[in-house]
Write a structure and sequence with these properties.
241 residues, SIR2/SIRT2 'Small Domain', elongated, metal-binding
Length: 241
């Protein structure tokens, strides 16, 4: 019998792929900065070339890695006929590259950009165009929007910004409709995304957490599997079929 799963995924989901965490890898040019000072609208307005260059460097880093067995395990559930929705705090595209099609990005997408003033987009996306930054990173002037002349910015949620409403509502809807919620690799500390396991519990949904360590989510779940994402997802696959 097919099961409707919702996977709530965080940084631990992609750690096995070698994706640097938000605050990791601040070397070279970026070693002089705190990541949180770069990830704000104010920082972009103040020095767009600095912030755009940093995100282009991060995009380049992302394109060097591949989905891991955990990402592939989630996609495999859908291929076996189960309904699978992914609601992720990650800005990478590894779920999609692994084959998942129903993915909601609560914190935006690193490989996409938009105009900071009118939200227009461009094809091909300028954040990945001719992407080959030096190892230590570089200042890069963001391209100008052809619609209004504003600067292109990464399509991610910066500190002080609201989550994309459509993605949030879709995530809540998926939880309401699902049979089971699986939380993978999230600290449970970043709000409002961290509230989703509690929402699931209040809706009466069984919640499983896969995380090598206990987290802020652990007291809210029915089961906690203390293991990496790839191991836990394989165990889940084996337990179902």
């Amino acid at each position: 019998m097919a099961t409707h799963f919702v996977f709530l995924t965080g940084a631990g989901m992609s750690a096995e792929s070698g994706v640097p965490t938000f605050r990791d890898g601040l070397t070279g040019l970026w070693g002089r900065f705190d990541a949180e000072t770069l990830a704000t609208p104010q920082a972009f307005r103040r020095d767009p070339a600095l912030v755009w260059g940093w995100y282009r460097w991060r995009a380049w880093q992302l394109l060097q890695v591949q989905p891991n067995a955990g990402h592939r395990g989630i996609a495999e559930l859908a291929r076996r006929g189960h309904r699978v929705d992914v609601v992720t705090q990650n800005v990478d595209d590894l779920h999609e590259r692994a084959g998942s099609t129903e993915v909601r990005h609560l914190h935006g997408e690193l490989l996409r950009s938009r105009c900071i003033d009118c939200s227009a987009r461009a094809e091909p996306d300028p954040i990945t165009l001719a992407l080959d930054p030096p190892e230590g990173g570089a200042h890069e002037t963001p391209p100008a929007c052809t619609v209004c002349g504003g600067a292109f910015r990464p399509d991610v949620v910066w500190f002080g910004e609201a989550l994309p409403e459509a993605e949030w509502e879709a995530g809540l809807g998926a939880i309401a409709a699902c049979d089971r919620v699986v939380v993978v690799g999230t600290s449970g500390m970043v709000q409002p995304a961290a509230s989703l396991p509690l929402v699931a519990r209040e809706m009466g949904k069984p919640v499983l957490e896969i995380n090598p360590q206990r987290s802020g989510v652990t007291p809210l779940v029915d089961e906690h599997w203390a293991m990496p994402a790839s191991t836990g997802l394989q165990r889940l696959l084996d337990s179902i079929d």
